[in-house]
TrEMBL record:
PANTHER family: SUGAR KINASE (PTHR10196), XYLULOSE KINASE (PTHR10196:SF57). GO terms for molecular function: ATP binding; D-xylulokinase activity. Keywords: ATP-binding, Carbohydrate metabolism, Kinase, Nucleotide-binding, Transferase, Xylose metabolism. The lineage of its organism: Eukaryota, Viridiplantae, Streptophyta, Embryophyta, Tracheophyta. This is Xylulose kinase. Gene3D superfamilies: 3.30.420.40.
Amino acid sequence: MVGRSSLPDGALFLGLDSSTQSVKATVLSNELIIVASETVNFDSELPHYKTEGGVYRDPTDDGRIYSPTIMWVEALELLLEKLKPKINFSKVVAVSGSGQQHGSVYWKKGSQAVLSSLDPGKSLVSQLKDAFSTMDSPIWMDSSTTKQCREIENAVGGALELSKLTGSRAYERFTGPQIRKIYQTAPHIYENTERTSLVSSFMASILVGCYASIDETDGAGMNLMDINKRTWSKVVLEATAPDLEQKLGNLAPAYAAAGRISSYFVERHQFDKNCLVIQWSGDNPNSLAGLTLNTPGDLAISLGTSDTVFGITAEAKPSLEGHVFPNPVEPDGYMVMLCYKNGSLTREDVRNQCAEKSWDIFNSYLEKTPPLNGGRLGFYYKDHEILPPLPVGFHRYIVENFNDASSENLTEREVQEFDPQSEVRAIVEGQMLSMRGHAERFGMPNPPKRIIATGGASSNESILKLIAQIFGCPVFTVERPDSASLGAALRAAHGWLCKEEGGFVPISRMYVGNLEKTSLGAKLAVPAPEEEGRELLKKYTALTRKRMEIERRLVEKIGRA
């Protein structure tokens, strides 16, 4: 068995994460210990773009949310400058990365030549500012492509057929519907596009100095890839836009090398000319790697700008909700995922309105209010929600007859508002009940053996305690809440090892028997509920059923799908 000795002494592995609100870096040593990290926040450190939460919301086009492509380029430059005093770039033997899933970039004709001849004496921004056929990158928060989703589904025989083919039914944020919208509404942009990249392959392209492939895992978030064959699906490509395959390029496994780092970074930042760039992938797949999630009974909950629930499975069983992607670190396996648009920004909104803009007050309210919140149940959608497909709106109910945990006896009445303390508990409790209800419906483990929590809000002990109570299992956390950049650094090391050994090797070979001595080990944050907690769990089970019932009625009445 090959252990840690497979990674060369003194080597560094750089993981980057280009997310919605920031770019982050995590650097691992050859012993898989974090030696440096850095962040650039878009709103505060690049204020000239005037983004809010890293994005623009188009007031003239309902649901259209996008980011300025060039901002990501400038953020990468600033991140490397901030990281430079902390590490010796010449010691980095491999770099990989994570990109917010589904976001897309449109390189205009002739840009490959620009990429391959970057002048190390000039900034990236000055050389790439004219390289795009549109300066706007649609991102995962966008919900303006409902029409295109239905058209693509209808063309392939319906939503379930598309899900069986690509791993997901058509979702507005997915890249295929976004490309179709550009083709239909701005044909000149589509015509002038030489290559369409995902955020992940876009950043990798800059690092290698040519168009990098889209990896198979992030490629599954486009509604364009055959999930079983892991090739572009001809039938879906034809339903999306003409001549699309040549604009997408080839797919590659997530563990493959995209190439060696461009001479631009060798000369400008003193990277070693042999430094490998490993395929970038999506942020959730990278988190799966960073959390070393490799047991089918485990679930991960990522609490970030979006909230996601994900796990692993040996076989693909796509359905009408949720997503199936290839596992980024196990070529024969899959990851399953649920995604919620209303995550941290919506929690922050409630904090600002009800808790004096203070997380300390927010947490004290969460601690003061009793579990089950006196039957107060809230649905909070600051943005059009993905799961369930409901429009912007807030719905509050009080569930009665709650002493009997049989859901048949539960009745509810709608109310206009809750008091501030109950509102705080209602947003968090409501989000977790929704996760549990949809995870069970999707066939995820119930209860899970354990949950590993990650993302910014995973450092909030009050929220972790609530997760344990609602799901009825222990909750673990990892050393760093930004598991995407950590996963990218781990995947950089894994990709380097695969290249060194001439083919795929299991990622666990880098840490087997040694996980606790690395920066990768998960630690118990909240134990599984005791006897008293099991009674509470029964009531949460009834409340979950009630919530799903109310949600179904809301979708039938006002849903977008």
